[in-house]
Amino acid sequence: MNHNRLDLSELEIGKPLPEWFLDPIFADQTVPQPADFTGKPLLILFFSLGCPGCLGRAIPYANRVTVENGEQVNVLGIHTDFSGIEIKPERFVEAQKEFYIRFPIFADQNYDTTFLDYGAGGTPHWILTDQRGIVVYSIFGSDPNNALLRLDLKMGEMGVQRSGS
Predict the structure, then answer these.
(1) At what angle do helices 59-69 and 147-157 cross, to 10 degrees?
(2) Assuming Cys at both sites, which of 66, 80, 82, 137 could form a disulfide with 115, CB separation 3.0 to 4.6 Å?
């Protein structure tokens, strides 16, 4: 496996989720591995604190999935920054409070290694796996009438039901 600097996507629909390269953001964090999430589908959000669509739509959507469907699906945030701007841990603490982040977040190694390995198209970008860790969907965006609707439909096909459904 090439670990990027533009050798690009190693992610394939229908194949196991490739290894990721994440760093802890907070001192008490241990970086999980993809295998740690088997048993339930996993929704991965690539986001940036400098991305208006991430802050205004993607993070709230990931929070909603976590709160409403946390028993049925895992959610993981990966902060990426392809411009290479370092974000201090204090800013992440502020962001967790400001945006009520309810899912675990980690930093992408070298700002964008996993982002590139997974062939993400920008931020926000979503990857969805089934309960076995097989990639079932990958989509860029935060439009409620496109990417987020499609994610809801795909998770519904996988048996993840919204609260009250």
Answers:
(1) 20
(2) 80
Asked if 17 and 11 count as a contact pair (C-beta separation under 8 A), the reply is: yes
Q: In whole angstroms, what is the distance from residue 70 CA to residue 78 CA?
A: 18
CA dihedral in degrees (154, 158, 162, 165; nearest 10)?
110
Phi/psi at 143 (nearest 5 deg)? -65, 125
**CATH number of the domain bearing residue 85:** 3.40.30.10
pTM across the whole model: 0.91
- 15-28 pLDDT tens trace: 999 999 999 999 89
Q: Edge to edge, what strands does the sheet with 125-129 contain?
A: 22-23, 105-108, 74-79, 42-47, 125-129, 135-140
Question: Would 99 be classed as within a structural domain?
Answer: yes
Assigned token pair, 8? 């690009």
Give the domain extent around 94: 37-157
Amino acid residing at 106: F
Number of domains comprising the chain = 1
Domain assignment present for 3: no
Residue 165 lies in a domain: no
